[in-house]
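Q: Structure tokens for this one, please.
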Amino acid sequence: MSPVPGHWLMKSEPDVFGISELRRRRTTTWDGVRNYEARNFMRGMAVGDRVLFYHSNAAPSGVAGLAEVSRTAIPDHTAWDPESPYFDAKSTPDAPRWWMVEVRFVAAFTEVVALDQLRAIPELADLALFRRSRLSVVPISAGHYALIAGLGGC
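A: Here is the predicted structure, written as tokens:
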């Protein structure tokens, strides 16, 4: 019997990397995360885990579609590139500090399920997005995932 997939909400600014770009590429590495808690969440992800793809700093901010983890955590090589905005001199190939996963496109919502809409739903009152709004990667419950995916038409 295969394990039950985990469920996550991952944020990206759509002008940096949005759901339409993930659809075009089909897969991408989720690099550049420079928060230890978010990094630790990614290190715990498994292939097949389900992802709500959230557009942050957008008009409106909200869930734009679905993705899934297609490769477990590997060292984030952008930390070793002095030309990268994600460079970290304390991270090395022998002792990486930062990790990334690969995600695969699943679906784009016809319309973003806006943050204001999510906040108005009593069943989502304890959604990690509301409590941990600064994190770019947060775990969510299977129930929250299903409810939001349904709102997006999936």
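A few notes: Residues 142-151 form the longest helix (10 residues). The chain has a mean pLDDT of 94.
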